Amino acid sequence: MKKDGNAVFEIVIPLDQYPHLYEHEPLGDAVAKLLGQCSDDGCHLHYDELFILDSENCLVGHLSIRDILISFFPSLLSQGSSSVYAGKKEQLTDLAILLVGTSDRECQRQVDHRVGDYMTRPHRVVEGRIHPLQALEIMIKDKETTLPVVDRGMLLGAVRMMDLFRYLGPRCTLPTTGEQQPES
């Protein structure tokens, strides 16, 4: 692929650098992989989801931290019809602290479950040759923050909205005194 400064493949996070697991691996591995990629001070995660691959390295889904947390604490966070609490919904968060011990045990039971059981089916994929603005438009319309990037059907990696912002943002700022505006 030729680099001309106007294609998503130039800002893609390669698959070997983007967190991913195979569908048969346990949720505990997903947690370890996401926690292992954080800021130097350990307070901020670099990624909020992983790609899930099958045994042939094909994308079959993604697993977000939201999916993981819901799987770990289903009695508290599940959106099903059953509820742990009766009464006003506004007070649910105030009462959540009462389930701390139960939630810890529930979380530990879920750690060995397969990531494939909790993943969401694949995002829409984008071709690496499209312009970053096209990828941004898809993300905004589909309410996604990460898209898988492919080239002729082969998964290359991911492009995130924050990477598009980093790429597009400098084009949209006013230059300070004595600073040249980036050429397009």
Automatic annotation (TrEMBL):
<feature type="domain" description="CBS">
    <location>
        <begin position="119"/>
        <end position="176"/>
    </location>
</feature>
<dbReference type="InterPro" id="IPR046342">
    <property type="entry name" value="CBS_dom_sf"/>
</dbReference>
<keyword id="KW-0129">CBS domain</keyword>
<dbReference type="Pfam" id="PF00571">
    <property type="entry name" value="CBS"/>
</dbReference>
<dbReference type="InterPro" id="IPR000644">
    <property type="entry name" value="CBS_dom"/>
</dbReference>
<protein>
    <submittedName>
        <fullName>CBS domain-containing protein</fullName>
    </submittedName>
</protein>
